## 1
Amino acid sequence: MQLITLALSPFGRKAHIVALEKGLDITITAPTVPTALFQDPLVVAKNPLAKVPTLLLDDGTAIYDSPVICAYLDSLRQGPSLVPDGADRFGVLTRVALADGMMDAAVAARQESIRPGGERSQACIDKQRDLNLRAVAAAEADLASFGSGARLDAIALAVALTYLDIRHPGIAWRDRAPKLAAWHAEMEQRPSFVATRPAS
Ligand SMILES: N[C@@H](CCC(=O)N[C@@H](CS)C(=O)NCC(=O)O)C(=O)O
């Protein structure tokens, strides 16, 4: 299996961590045109959305986007199950969606912030920032539900928070969420997190 991704992509890091937590044999490949994925021949040939991460199976089949990649990897009967089958399944998946939404907002704000001055919308950046602050408050209030360790909601939330640190340090989410800050520091100590931590 080959995961096409960029080191700084939070979606890609989440999928890579899932593979490591499952003990799966996976090769990480960087796109050849990282700044314009729609021009990357491999990414475009395999994923018309031209996004990373894209997972390539050994027979060439492509799987995207990251929630589907994570579900696929978790379905392989190796390693611990990262999403429970029982009553809490949809609670866990909803918390994963919260974390994925944080990543979406943080990536959108980043893309907006690097547009030329005249084209940049501060209102758009502020909207994504407010979304992330609401999500941080919700996670701080509901931290006990996220658990810790190798469960997909915990993995996704910790990855989203690290991405905020890298791309939006000004949000200073720790000031508003001390319990989350301590929890996040512990999650980042897991070997799968250390192995995938992007150089900022
Ligand atoms: N919903 C997708 C989002 C993936 C995504 O937005 N990836 C970014 C990199 S972090 C990307 O490929 N952007 C390229 C583009 O939008 O042109 C997922 O979960 O995989």
## 2
Amino acid sequence: MERERAAAFWEANAETWTQHSRAGYDVYRDNVNTPGFLAMLPPVAGLLGLDIGCGEGANTRSVARLGARMEAIDAAPTFVKHAADAERSEPLGITYGVGDAQALPFPDGRFDFATAFMVFMDVPDYRAALAEAHRVVRPGGFLQFSILHPCFVPPHRRVVRDAAGVPHTIEVARYFDKIDGEVERWKFSAAPEAVQEVTEPFATPLFHHTLSEWLNAVIDAGFSLERIGEPSVDEATAARVPSVADSRIAPLFLHVRGRK
Ligand SMILES: C[S@@+](CC[C@H](N)C(=O)[O-])C[C@H]1O[C@@H](n2cnc3c(N)ncnc32)[C@H](O)[C@@H]1O
């Protein structure tokens, strides 16, 4: 899929995505991915960081609150607008701009570190995105990113539940399929039914690569692998937010940190 076409899908999703994630419907981000990502992040206070694919900026703000000086880009202007609006109402010193992860608008070695929360599996050229992250980080700096777990969220994943609706098995398939921009249509399942009824589904282009392709691409970009994470929730969180209980059976997210 062409880069511009893939980005256009995200721009079309951005308004509703911002409203729904700010309403708390992105329960996997809020309860699984972000807490695990931040727990794995090394100290960033005083460092200059770039958040790649920032969306409406919630995760950029979380990293800024840890003391980092943050800049952030996203391919979708509507996400960038909402992120910048949030910066105006609660200033954290973050600079936002429109940009493509596969061709970052920054000079070599500008940043101490880069983050990318759930972005690189959404771009047509993941190897270019990793190479660009490597280019803009200084020697000794790091990239930490999260993606859908290639092994447990390949193009086919089905949560198998018992009669009471409790998940007990994850069914996966199509792990080795080459997927280049297959468009998935879906809604945040945590949104109330009344909201879902009046909401057009998100259309997101899917790009799947195997675990070895991902890790080899990180290494080929020039990073040394430093840390890997597969976040899950504890029993109390699963009881409070039952829809994320499947992360206790097999992980949905893979977190990777590479050092330049
Ligand atoms: C799943 S959302 C994650 C947003 C945000 N990082 C978060 O965790 O809330 C994927 C984000 O990647 C952005 N994106 C997709 N392709 C991109 C590209 N080529 N360059 C920059 N951002 C891109 C989308 O616009 C969207 O904001």
